[in-house]
TrEMBL record:
Domain VOC intervals: 1-122
Database matches in SUPFAM superfamilies: Glyoxalase/Bleomycin resistance protein/Dihydroxybiphenyl dioxygenase (SSF54593)
Protein name: VOC domain-containing protein
Name of a matching Pfam family: Glyoxalase
InterPro entries linked to this entry: Glyas_Bleomycin-R_OHBP_Dase (IPR029068), Glyas_Fos-R_dOase_dom (IPR004360), VOC_core (IPR037523)
Record organism: Erythrobacter litoralis (strain HTCC2594)
Signal sequence residues: none
Highest rank taxon of the organism: Bacteria
Amino acid sequence: MIGYVTLGTNDLAKHAPFYDAIAKAMGVGRMMEFDSFIAWGEMGGAPGVALTKPFDGKEATVGNGTMVALQVAGPDKVKEIYDIALSHGGSDEGEPGPRGDDGFYAAYFRDPQGNKLNAFCMTQGG
C-alpha cells in the first residue's frame, strides 16, 4: 500500500503554498514537516503527497511520464482542485471533463515546479 508519493522541489518554501491550497480543498493539511520535506494528508488515511529537496543535494527535476493522481468525491471537486491549482501558479494539462466512456472524470495540471498531477473521480460504473 502506498503511504505517500514524493515530488522534488528546488524551493520548498516557494512551492509549498500550492500544495497547502489543494490539500485544504481536499480536507487535509500537513501531516509531516521538516526543513527539507513536507507531506500533506492524514496519518492512517489515504495516501499523501510530499514535496522534498533531493537528499543528494542535486537539483530536483521533473519525471517524464510521472504523475500523481488525486482521487476526489465528484466532478465539482475535480474542477475546484483544478481551479485552485491554476490560481496558485499551476499550468493546464487538460481541463476537467470525462475521459472515455467508463465514468472516469479528470483534470490535469502541473505544479509551479513542473510536476504533473491530476484530480479525478468516477462518475458511474467505475
